[in-house]
Design brief:
Mean pLDDT: 80
Strand order of the largest sheet: 1-2-3-4-5
Keywords: Autophagy, Endoplasmic reticulum, Lipid transport, Membrane, Transport
Low-confidence stretches: none
Number of helices: 2
Subcellular location: Endoplasmic reticulum membrane; Preautophagosomal structure membrane
Protein name: Autophagy-related protein 2
Shape: elongated
Structural class: alpha+beta
Number of domains: 1
GO molecular function, one term: protein-membrane adaptor activity
Family: Belongs to the ATG2 family.
Number of strands: 5
Helix content: 10-25%
Length: 111
């Protein structure tokens, strides 16, 4: 039996996603962008633009520089009925990355 209402699931999804992947997104998720399916713990997020500044901070020691990044969609399944013992499944589709290669010796960025 599922004790989580659709509204509670949506709010919890939005909160957890903003806390976990929020720093890597260009803007925060809102409740309208989280689409739940049949109260079974599946949800869908379309067309996400990534925060390239935050990602570049993490990649600073690599010879690449991120110019633009998008994820076409995220599909996930959260087993609300057994959060302690079950796995969460997350699938990313249509990932777009526009990268530049850094030339370390010259201190310039090449295309």
């Amino acid at each position: 039996m599922n004790f989580w209402s659709s509204d509670v699931q949506k709010r919890l999804c939005s909160y957890l996603l903003n806390k976990t992947i929020g720093p890597f997104l260009k803007s925060n998720l809102d409740l309208m962008s989280v689409q739940l399916f049949n109260r079974n713990g599946k949800f869908y997020l379309p067309e996400l633009q990534l925060n390239v500044e935050k990602i570049n901070e993490i990649l600073k020691d690599l010879p690449i520089y991120l110019i633009e990044a998008n994820v076409g969609e995220i599909n996930a399944e959260i087993p609300w009925w057994d959060l302690k013992n079950s796995n969460v499944s997350i699938q990313l589709k249509d990932i777009y990355l526009n990268l530049l290669i850094k030339e370390q010796q010259l201190g310039i960025i090449l295309i």
